[in-house]
Design a protein that fits this description.
With 96 residues, this protein is mainly α. It has a domain of 39 residues. 71% of the residues lie in helices and 0% in strands. It has four helices and no strands. It is elongated.
């Protein structure tokens, strides 16, 4: 590997010529390895965004129901077992 200065001296060319060669090499030889997939280039349509939003809202509703069910289950367990299950703010963990 040569530095820019070494390359200009060795090949007797200017820096701009080296830059031109570099651009040509990148465009003709290397670009095919760095091209993103065509599906990644396409921006989502409004319909796709609406579908994603609806899916996210449905998932949120499901998670809220799950959270409510777990909270209810903990409350019932606390009443039946007469122990505190929820961690209190500021309390330290017990050492085993």
């Amino acid at each position: 590997m040569l530095t820019i200065r070494q390359s200009t001296k060795q090949y007797h060319v200017s820096v701009s010529t080296l830059q031109d060669w570099n651009r040509w090499y990148y465009k003709t030889r290397l670009l095919k390895y760095f091209r993103p997939k065509s599906s990644l280039l396409m921006e989502p349509t409004i319909e796709q965004l609406k579908q994603q939003l609806a899916a996210a809202q449905a998932q949120l509703a499901q998670e809220q129901l799950k959270n409510t069910a777990l909270e209810t289950m903990i409350s019932v367990a606390e009443k039946q077992l007469k122990i505190e299950i929820r961690k209190k703010d500021g309390s330290k963990q017990s050492r085993s």
